[in-house]
Design a protein that fits this description.
Order of helices and strands: EEEEEEEEEEEH
Pfam families: Trypsin_2 (PF13365)
Distance between the termini: 23 Å
Number of strands: 11
Largest sheet: 6 strands, antiparallel, barrel
Number of helices: 1
Helix content: under 10%
Strand order of the largest sheet: 6-7-8-11-10-9
Shape: globular
CATH topology of the largest domain: Thrombin, subunit H
CATH class of the largest domain: Mainly Beta
Length: about 170
C-alpha cells in the first residue's frame, strides 16, 4: 500500500493514524504493515490496521513503535464555507519507492456537500500517493478532513463530521 496518513492520537509510543480507505483497500483488518514517518519523527516502524469504513473512505491504523513525541493534528469542528483557505499537507514521491519530501499545496473550498459522506471539494494541488493526507484550514492549522480520490480534476476531502460519525 502507498499513501499518506496523519496522527490523530498520541499516547507514549502508541500513535493512531488516520488515512483513506483507498490507501489500505487491499489489506485485511488486523494486518501489520510497515509504516514510514519522516526521519525526524522516527523513520520506519509497523502499524496494525484497526478499522476500515469503505463507504466513508476512512481507515485507522495503530503504531506502537514510535517513541518520539509527535503532536497529533487537531481536527476542527468549525463549519467549512465556500472560499475558506486551506492546504494539503502531504509527503509525495521523489523517486520510487522512497517518499521523502513533505509539501504543502494551497487552495480553497469550492463546494460543500453534506451527505452520508460529507465531501468538501478543494482547489489545492494533489500529488501522486497523497490519499489519506490531512487537509488543513488557514489560519487555525487544524484539519478539516482527509484527502480522498480526485475525480476529473476535482479534489475531495472527507469532512471531520464524517470522520466523527465513523467512530
Amino acid at each position: 500500500y502507498k499513501g499518506n496518513g496523519f496522527i490523530v492520537h498520541s499516547d507514549g509510543g502508541t500513535k493512531l493514524i488516520r488515512t483513506s480507505q483507498h490507501v489500505v483497500k487491499t489489506l485485511a483488518v488486523n494486518v501489520v504493515v510497515p509504516t514510514y514517518f519522516s526521519e525526524s519523527c522516527g523513520g520506519k516502524t509497523n502499524a496494525r490496521l484497526l478499522f476500515v469504513d469503505a463507504d466513508r473512505d476512512l481507515a485507522l491504523l495503530q503504531s506502537d513503535g514510535v517513541h518520539r513525541q509527535i503532536e497529533p493534528i487537531l481536527l476542527t469542528d468549525e463549519p467549512t464555507r465556500y472560499g475558506n483557505k486551506l492546504f494539503l499537507l502531504t509527503f509525495f514521491d521523489m523517486d520510487e519507492p522512497i517518499v521523502v519530501c513533505p509539501g504543502t499545496f494551497p487552495g480553497e473550498i469550492t463546494l460543500h456537500e453534506p451527505n452520508l459522506v460529507e465531501i468538501i471539494r478543494g482547489s489545492y494541488t494533489v500529488k501522486p500517493r497523497s490519499l489519506g493526507a490531512p487537509v488543513i484550514t488557514i489560519p487555525s492549522c487544524e484539519a478539516v478532513g482527509v484527502n480522498i480520490d480526485a475525480h476529473v480534476g476535482m479534489k475531495g476531502v472527507v469532512s471531520v463530521r464524517t470522520i466523527l460519525a465513523a467512530l
